[in-house]
Amino acid sequence: MAVLIFLQKGGWLMAPILLTMLVGFYFAVNRYLYLHQNRVESKELQRSVITYLDQQNFDEALQLLDQKSGCVANMFKVGISNWFEGQERLESRLKQVFYEEYEGIHRHLSTIQIIAAILPMLGLLGTVTGMITVFKAIASVGVGDPQAMAGGISQALITTQTGLAAAIPILFCHSVLSDKAEGLDIELKKTGTIIQNMVKRQQKQAE
Description:
There is one protein chain. By secondary structure, this protein is mainly alpha-helical. It has one domain (2-206). It has 7 helices and no strands. The chain has helices at residues 2-10, 14-54, 58-66, 71-81, 87-105, 109-141, 146-206. The longest helix is centred in the C-terminal third of the chain and has 61 residues, at 146-206. The relative contact order is 0.17.
């Protein structure tokens, strides 16, 4: 009941503020699950696949990779399929995969950042709307009736408070997710470097 009264005092702008906040948290949770799963799987996968590739057990490595769907798994698949195609071809394909996976890793992060910026603006819009209501009340009944101005002041403060309170955690989420995305970028580059070094080493051993 108290929550409903609070929302009512905030005025109609509380609806877009809360809706925008929910959208922001949806994208944040979605990205966290994606990045966390890829990061955890990447380290275990690297160890297992490298063991197979050291022994040139490409079929077993591919069988393991077919059970995975992460970005590091995709990098290994492309590396194995171009293993004997020469360094230039291999490097070109690995770069292509990196840029493709980069888009997936960083998807919606800019959206989360924009939402974190929009929320305080919506709160500020509520402040302006509330103050307009206050000035209308003053013009109508003068300054002698505080009750007439209370609604506008309440709306101005509540929307500002809600906008800031919603923006802060989403901004924090964006910072954490950006760090995780950069960490996954590093893992992906590391995987590409490992593949290229292994191919070079095996070519030298074969000479």
